[in-house]
Design goal:
The protein is mostly helical and 159 residues long. It has one domain: dinb family like domain (Four Helix Bundle (Hemerythrin (Met), subunit A), Up-down Bundle). The chain contains seven helices and two strands, in the order H-H-H-H-H-H-E-E-H. It has a two-stranded antiparallel sheet. A hairpin with a 7-residue loop joins strand 1 and strand 2. The radius of gyration is 17 Å and the shape is globular. The mean pLDDT is 93.
Length: 159
């Protein structure tokens, strides 16, 4: 194995590790909070901790099941827009949304398990992307929403 192979393996390992770290981090923002707290609106938008977790679940399904897997949002039973994905229903609980997130993560891992980072996936609405691009996009979105969730959690704990 040449040094280039090690670099490629390291890149994949690091991308996966960073994505996993943020997946765990956003779930952890709900730890120890009541159902009322995870639903509470603390900003002028409809953003809540539960809504953020619901959105990142949707987002990962879009990238890994639609973009990589090639199935439409409609076929996947997903709402069409990001704004809709934040909406929390009466049936949503911290446990049910966390379980849906964990299921989406497991599905995502399986979808990419045998694909190299340079694999071109064609399910994106604006054209082909590499798997590397998908990982970076998911990482960017997870990091952004973890930051939002951290601030909301801090506000809830300060009350």
């Amino acid at each position: 194995m040449g040094s280039f192979d090690v670099l490629v393996d390291d890149e994949r390992t690091q991308l996966e590790a960073f994505v996993e770290e943020y997946r765990c981090a956003i779930e952890a923002t709900l730890d120890g909070l009541s159902e009322e707290q995870v639903r509470r609106r603390l900003v002028s938008s409809a953003t809540t901790l539960l809504g953020l977790l619901k959105h990142v679940t949707w987002m990962q399904r879009v990238w890994f099941e639609e973009c990589v897997g090639g199935r439409s949002r409609r076929a996947l039973g997903l709402v069409q827009s990001p704004d809709e994905s934040f909406r929390v229903t009466a049936d949503d609980t911290a446990a049910s949304v966390t379980a849906a997130h964990q299921e989406a993560c497991a599905t995502a891992r399986a979808a990419v398990a045998d694909l190299p980072l340079d694999a071109v996936v064609t399910g994106h609405r604006r054209g082909p992307r590499t798997l590397r691009w998908v990982y970076l996009q998911v990482l960017r979105e997870l990091a952004q929403h973890c930051g939002h969730a951290d601030i909301l959690r801090e506000q809830l704990l300060a009350e």
